[in-house]
Amino acid sequence: MLPPLYAIKSQHAISMRIMTGFTQLPRLYTPPEVLPPGGQEALCPMPAEQARYLGTVLRRTAGDTVRLFNAQAGEWLASIADIRKDKGHFRLERPLRPALAQPTLILAFALLKRDATDLVLRMGTELGVTQFLPVITERTNSHRVNLERLHAIATEAAEQCERLDIPAVNAPAPLASLIGSWPADHTLFVAMERMNAAPARTLAEAREADGLLIGPEGGWSEAESQMLAKRAFVAPISLGSLVLRADTAVAAGLALMGGGLRSGTVLSQ
């Protein structure tokens, strides 16, 4: 159950006062098993890639401060205790922002070409997606992805946009598998091109754990459209009279879907 909106806004106001003066510091995701458990003054191991980034790219040295975060521990001010080429330690100074509940927002999308898929991951992370479900359709442009790379893109986007959690990225699955495993008590809003009638539901009605499904550049095949139409949990929606690129449709759909869902939680972090 999500916390009341007034409670979320109150936590947000307190967090923003605490954060004043620290917004320009490097912000790095740190796994829950590292941050804490030790708590204030504890030493946290620095991953090799972060050591290289801080030392080589940013030219940071011992004593410089950073921000560390994850969804369980919130956000912490930390100093660099020691740093070498590919190793080092952070010393936790004090908490900056508490962990805050994040509503479940699922994006299923037909796999696109590499650059477009990267853009979907970045935009979706910034717009509050908590789980990405890549889908293989009859007109999908690509069938293989590097999940480790996509997770890294989502992590970088989360570090940049100030959210505390890192969205999950599932392995690609056929459309039929997605539809067959979708929970019947949650709506799957499906963007449809050239709808002949006004949709019965709109994205503004979305609840937590509902999903948005965006099809491939070539649109849904006739067989796929019929399969989707047979499911009671599927709600066809329109994104306007113009035919959008798939990555543009993702941004438009998430903005509409998250208007109510994100106003109290994601955008208030």
How is this structure best summarized?
It contains seven helices and twelve strands. With 269 residues, it is of the alpha/beta class.
First-to-last CA distance = 17 Å
Please tally the β strands and state the result: 12
Point out poorly predicted stretches.
1-14, 263-269
Q: What pattern of helices and strands is seen along the backbone?
A: HEEHEEEEHEHEEHEEHEH
Give the number of helices.
7
Shape: elongated
Give the biggest beta sheet. Answer: 7 strands, parallel
> pLDDT average, as an integer?
87
Q: Structural class, from secondary structure content?
A: alpha/beta
Strand content: 15-25%
What helical percentage do the residues reach?
25-40%
Rg to the nearest angstrom?
21 Å
Quickly list its features.
269 residues; seven-stranded parallel beta sheet; five-stranded mixed beta sheet; 7 helices; 31% helix; elongated; disordered N terminus; disordered C terminus
Describe it:
Helix content is 31%, strand content 22%. It is built from seven helices and twelve strands. The strands form two sheets. Strands 6, 7, 8, 9, 10, 11 and 12 form a seven-stranded parallel sheet that branches. Strands 1-3-4-5-2 form a five-stranded mixed sheet. Helix 3 (114-126) runs parallel beside helix 4 and helix 3 packs parallel to helix 7 (246-261).
Please outline the helices and strands:
Layout: H1 5-19, E1 27-29, E2 43-45, H2 48-57, E3 65-70, E4 74-83, E5 88-97, E6 106-110, H3 114-126, E7 131-136, H4 147-161, E8 168-169, E9 173-174, H5 175-181, E10 188-191, E11 211-214, H6 222-229, E12 234-237, H7 246-261
Parallel strand pairs: 1-3, 6-7, 6-11, 7-8, 7-9, 10-11, 10-12
Antiparallel strand pairs: 2-5, 3-4, 4-5
